[in-house]
Design brief:
474 residues; TIM Barrel; 2 domains; binds 2-acetamido-2-deoxy-beta-D-glucopyranose; Glycoside hydrolase family 71 protein; signal; Glyco_hydro_71
């Protein structure tokens, strides 16, 4: 009896220490037009996917111009989150190298304390969790002493658990994981946990591995740190500031990144982080948003001004990627894959061949532009054994099999010749010789392009399609 009880208790303890919490990175800059109702809409859409909270990324409100409105948006966000049982944490953006006013401990402390009593404040072992983007790049402003100072101020009344994303260490870990992790622990004794920001292969034509994640996680553990290990998951990375500087235009090899990265915590079970953070909910300019596209109507509550970068964002819907996120999140949280009740094929592609020179954008200077494959990628989740058939232009009826045992992936290359008028990919789900669902991409692939664009468009064939991008069936 006793050994059995003990085994049961320890199994229970194991279960409860596996936190399995999901955050999504939220760019506060893009909430300028939000009211509380809009926050609720976003939060409900995130909860539909299994996301438990937003990490609110904001820059110092007086860094460049006046961004003090962000303080009011945060207030609305907390009210909305409290009503919907959602969590929020700050992600102080410390990456800006030129600010009129940088982050300072007094202001940060005030902003943390302001919501210390809120049910929406995310806590770890009763401490308030504070995250960052950076803190290691602007030497004369931040660094370990700065973090320690903030922690000391908070210690007596509202202790914090510090989980920063120190990007130079995350980047270094791509080549030498254990060295970078050791260096992090020795140079940042103030940290309690770590957020490994690097969710994309770093300037290499390779699939991402979990080695850096494993190294950071075990370094934290060996150092006796009590904070969470947070792992980043992202579907894509492409940005073009179009300023003539080749350093400011890049794409990361992301073709099948989203499902493959998720598989590291589910199917392959290579690593068990405490928290995952999806990069991102709404960073449109880096092409890794999973939110619906914002409105272009200046009166809308989710109006976002994207400037030149809108040229590669407008029309490039990513919402069906949330189906992929939802599936793996459910698997990760429950420890087993969810039953498949619908037939859904999510597929994505870029809208011009990578060699095409477009009229606008950084046509010749996009770093890593040879890495992406000119292909349409598909992720199929079907309730019964099916053939998934894909066609694009002169490439017709490429097939792969899928069944109810789990997701299946396939692809079809762009045809060798893509006309200016373009070809639109088409996907069908075929079962027992009958086409049960068929559909086209929302955008063609064309060799006539007004703007260099390595941001893909994502489409869905199958169930849930008629309910639109915010479909509750997602
Ligand atoms: C601290 O930051 C706040 C917000 O940017 C700013 O208003 C304030 O002037 C700063 N204080 C100092 C001493 O720099
Ligand atoms: C990434 O992995 C897939 C198999 O899962 C493989 O087909 C593909 O070639 C790999 N990509 C690179 C750049 O090695």
């Amino acid at each position: 009896m006793l050994p059995l009880l003990f085994a049961l208790l320890s199994a229970l303890a194991l279960q409860t220490t596996h936190a399995a919490t999901v955050f999504a990175h939220f760019m506060l800059m893009n909430s300028y037009a939000y009211d509380e109702g809009q926050w609720k809409t976003d939060i409900a859409a995130a909860q539909q996917v299994g996301i438990d909270g937003f990490a609110l990324n904001w820059i110092p409100p007086n860094c460049q111009g006046d961004e003090s409105w962000a303080v009011d948006r945060i207030d609305d966000a907390f009210h909305a989150a409290e009503d919907l049982g959602f969590k929020l944490m700050y992600s102080f953006d410390m990456s800006y190298t030129e600010c009129d006013v940088y982050w300072n401990q007094t202001f940060m402390q005030d902003m943390i304390v302001k919501y210390a009593g809120s049910s929406a404040t995310y806590r770890w072992n009763s401490n308030i969790v504070v995250s960052t983007y950076g803190g290691d790049q602007v030497d004369d402003q931040y660094g370990d002493m700065f973090f320690q100072g903030l922690k000391d101020r908070m210690k007596s009344s509202n202790a914090i658990t510090l989980v920063p994303a120190l990007t130079t260490y995350s980047m270094a870990a791509q080549t030498d994981p254990s060295k970078a992790a050791k260096k992090l622990i020795s140079e940042y004794p103030s940290i309690d946990g770590y957020f490994n920001w690097q969710a994309w292969p770093l300037d290499v034509d390779q699939n991402i591995t979990a080695s850096p994640d494993l190294a950071f996680q075990s370094a934290l553990k060996n150092a006796g740190k009590t904070g969470p290990y947070m792992m980043a998951m992202s579907p894509w990375q492409y940005k073009d500031l179009n300023n003539g500087n080749p350093l400011d235009a890049w794409v990361a090899y992301s073709d099948m990144l989203f499902p493959k990265r998720f598989q590291q915590i589910t199917a392959n079970d290579q690593i068990q982080p405490d928290i995952i953070e999806i990069l991102t909910w709404n960073d449109f300019c880096e092409s890794h948003y999973i939110r619906d596209l914002p409105s272009q109507d200046i009166k809308a509550k989710d109006y976002v001004e994207l400037g030149d970068m809108g040229a590669y964002v407008w029309g490039q819907n990513h919402a069906p990627w949330r189906i992929i996120a939802k599936y793996y999140i459910s698997w990760w949280k429950n420890g087993s894959p969810p039953p498949i009740t619908m037939d859904q094929v999510v597929f994505w592609h870029r809208i011009h061949p990578k060699g095409t020179i477009c009229t606008g954008g950084s046509s010749s200077g996009i770093r890593n532009n040879a890495f992406p494959e000119d292909a349409v990628f598909a992720w199929a989740l079907v309730s019964e054994s099916s053939t998934i058939s894909m066609s694009v232009g002169s490439n017709k009826y490429w097939t792969f099999r899928a069944d109810s045992s789990g997701p299946a992936m396939g692809m079809i290359p762009f045809p060798a010749y893509v006309s200016q008028s373009g070809v639109t990919p088409e996907v069908a789900i075929v079962r027992n010789g009958e086409t049960v669902h068929t559909g086209k991409s929302s955008q063609p692939i064309s060799s006539a392009c007004a703007w260099q664009n390595f941001n893909p468009v994502v489409s869905l064939v199958g169930d849930g399609i008629n309910s639109g991008p915010s479909a509750s069936s997602y």
